[in-house]
Amino acid sequence: xxxxxxxxxxxxxxxxxxxxxxxxxxxxxxxxxxxxxxxxxxxxxxxxxxxxxxxxxxxxxxxxxxxxxxxxxxxxxxxxxxxxxxxxxxxxxxxxxxxxxxxxxxxxxxxxxxxxxxxxxxxxxxx
Length: 127
Fold this sequence. Notes:
It is found in: Cell projection, Pseudopodium; Cytoplasm, Cytoskeleton. This protein is an all-beta fold. The chain has strands at about 10-15, 20, 30-35, 40-50, 55, 60-65, 70-75, 90-95, 115-125. The protein has a 5-stranded mixed sheet with strand order 2-9-8-4-6, with no helix packed on it. Strands 1-3-7-5 form a 4-stranded antiparallel sheet, with no helix packed on it. The N and C termini lie far apart (about 50 Å). The model has no long low-confidence stretch (mean pLDDT about 95).
C-alpha cells in the first residue's frame, strides 16, 4: 500500500546547490546532509550528470522517518576553464519502500509504479 502514497519531503543541507572552490588540481569533497522529513521509510539514490568528474558516497540507501545521513560528494581534479561545467548537477531521487521491506536498498523500488520524487542540486565552481 505504500506505493499509492506519495513519498514525503526530504531536507538536504545545503538546500539549493553544491559549491566547489578552486584550485581544481586535486580532488575536493563536500558533505551533504540528507534528512527524511516524512513519516515513512524511503529508499534514495543519487545520480550525477558528469560521472567522470563527480562522485557520491554512499550513492544510495534507505532512511527511516526523521533519520539523517551524511553523503560525500567528490569532485575529481580537472582543467577548470577548459571543460564545460555549466550542466553539472547531482540529483537525489527517493521513493517509499514497500511495507515490510528490509532496510536494504533495492533498485527495483524505483522501477515499479510507485511515485518517485527528485531534487536537483546544481554544482557551482568558483574560480
